[in-house]
């Protein structure tokens, strides 16, 4: 059995002989960078919040492999989608010390797919300043797209135009539909790029590549959350600039052009 990511290499999962649970699978990569799987394991453990969104349980981890629970597949339903939205609120509300901080117990470095994910050791001045530099412009430079249009968006972010006063949330960070597994018990999350971030970032990732019953997920989230800013649906695309620039750096194609079209709305 294999899992693949839109923003990363193929990673093979296979049954692990001798593991305590017959439902354990190993995710292995012989050329894994140092701390690659340690960062993922720390993220899964950090996101495992009581009554929050379910995450695959970590069995063991080392330099070249991560052993996690196998998730039995099930058909997505509207009830499961709405429940997931409410559970994601609980996960987010568990909070983080500040924007950009990595998971407790993690190695202090992170990845989103194959791309590096800068993590901070000290609090930034604001969400906007952090998102502009450590997320948007970091990957704009890696993709050769640091032009005047993105620069104007970054300046407005740094000036606080889009700050809303919400505290740092405990976010998955790479919540595209491939990392949202539908099981008989509801949604289970895998493969995080976990860090302290804005709640809308996870919702934006769910919307970017399409998620089954997305509107039911968003409705369940909105009903349970007290932190969504006014006009939050109009800000979803702003939070998609980061993953689109990640994809532009990794894969090229039309991702950069799509990011620039979105940037015009916020410049």
What would the keywords be for this entry?
Aminoglycoside 3'-phosphotransferase, Chain: A, domain 2; 8 helices; 5-stranded antiparallel sheet; 267 residues; alpha+beta; 16% strand; 3-stranded mixed sheet; disordered N terminus
What do you see in this structure?
The relative contact order is 0.17. This protein has 267 residues and is of the alpha+beta class. Helix 2 (78-93) crosses helix 6 (214-224). The chain has helices at 36-47, 78-93, 127-142, 148-158, 199-208, 214-224, 236-251, 255-266, and strands at 2-3, 11-15, 24-28, 54-55, 58-61, 65-69, 110-112, 115-117, 169-171, 180-183, 186-189, 195-197. Strand 5 and strand 6 (65-69) form a beta hairpin. The longest helix is centred in the N-terminal third of the chain and has 16 residues, at 78-93.
What's the main sheet like? 5 strands, antiparallel
**Approximately what portion of the residues adopt beta-strand conformation?**
15-25%
Top-tier CATH class: Alpha Beta
Radius of gyration: 18 Å
Quick one: how many beta strands? 12
Helix content: 25-40%
Layout: helices, strands, pairs:
Layout: E1 2-3, E2 11-15, E3 24-28, H1 36-47, E4 54-55, E5 58-61, E6 65-69, H2 78-93, E7 110-112, E8 115-117, H3 127-142, H4 148-158, E9 169-171, E10 180-183, E11 186-189, E12 195-197, H5 199-208, H6 214-224, H7 236-251, H8 255-266
Parallel strand pairs: 4-11
Antiparallel strand pairs: 1-2, 2-3, 3-6, 5-6, 7-8, 9-12, 10-11
Helix pairs in contact: 2-6, 3-4, 3-7, 4-8, 5-7, 7-8
């Amino acid at each position: 059995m294999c899992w693949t990511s839109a923003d990363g290499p193929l990673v093979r999962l296979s049954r692990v002989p001798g593991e305590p649970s017959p439902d354990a699978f190993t995710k292995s990569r012989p050329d894994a960078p140092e701390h690659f799987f340690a960062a993922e394991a720390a993220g899964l453990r950090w996101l495992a919040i009581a009554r929050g969104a379910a995450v695959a349980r970590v069995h063991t981890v080392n330099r070249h492999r991560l052993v996690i629970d196998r998730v039995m597949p099930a058909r997505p339903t509207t009830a499961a989608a709405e429940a997931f939205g409410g559970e994601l609120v609980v996960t987010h509300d568990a909070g983080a010390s500040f924007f950009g901080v990595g998971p407790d117990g993690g190695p202090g470095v992170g990845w989103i797919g194959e791309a590096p994910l800068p993590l901070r050791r000290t609090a930034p001045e604001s969400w906007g300043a952090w998102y502009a530099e450590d997320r948007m412009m970091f990957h704009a430079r890696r993709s050769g797209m640091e032009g005047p249009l993105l620069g104007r968006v970054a300046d407005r972010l740094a000036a606080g135009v889009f700050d809303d006063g919400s505290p740092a949330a405990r976010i998955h960070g790479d919540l595209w539909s491939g990392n949202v597994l539908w099981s008989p018990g509801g949604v289970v999350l895998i493969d995080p790029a976990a860090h302290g971030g804005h709640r809308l970032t996870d919702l934006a990732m769910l919307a970017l590549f399409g998620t089954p019953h997305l509107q039911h997920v968003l409705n369940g989230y909105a009903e349970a959350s007290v932190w969504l800013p006014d006009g939050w649906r109009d800000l979803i695309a702003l939070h998609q600039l980061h993953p689109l620039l990640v994809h532009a750096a990794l894969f090229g194609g039309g991702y950069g052009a799509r990011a620039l079209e979105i940037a015009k709305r916020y410049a």
